[in-house]
């Protein structure tokens, strides 16, 4: 039973670089997806997406954009993290999580 715990700890340590790279990839990918979704869904003729410090957008637009962006980021991150974990498991035989 103790060997399994040590093995899992090693897998977590070895997975850290994979996890960092997947976080960067998911952030970039989620940002690109959000921009495309907002461009297609927005009725506004304004360039760009609503941000809290951009005065040309109302509070409602900023809050909706933040909620949509958060949902997209969480979904993309889950997909990329899961894919990275599966690739790590195929390569090492160990699942990097608990």
Share of helical residues: over 70%
| Main sheet record | none
- Poorly predicted ranges (pLDDT <50, ≥5 residues)? none
Strand content bin:
under 5%
Please provide the ordered H/E string of secondary-structure elements. Answer: HH
What structural category arises from helix and sheet content? mainly alpha
Strand segment count: 0
Gyration radius, rounded: 19 Å
Please tally the helical runs, counting DSSP H or I stretches of 4 or more residues: 2
How would you describe this structure to a colleague?
This protein is mostly helical and 98 residues long. 76% of the residues lie in helices and 0% in strands. The protein has two helices and no strands. The chain has helices at 2-41, 59-92. The longest helix has 40 residues, at 2-41. The protein is elongated and about 55 Å long. The two termini are 14 Å apart. 13% of the residues are buried.
């Amino acid at each position: 039973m103790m060997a399994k715990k040590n093995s899992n700890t090693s897998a977590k340590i070895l997975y850290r670089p994979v996890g960092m790279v997947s976080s960067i990839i998911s952030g970039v990918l989620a940002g690109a997806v959000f921009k495309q979704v907002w461009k297609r869904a927005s009725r506004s003729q304004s360039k760009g997406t609503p941000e809290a410090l951009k005065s040309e957008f109302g509070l409602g637009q900023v809050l909706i954009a933040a909620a949509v962006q958060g949902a997209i980021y969480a979904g993309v991150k889950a997909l990329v993290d899961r894919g990275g974990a599966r690739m790590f498991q195929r390569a090492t035989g160990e699942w990097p999580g608990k």
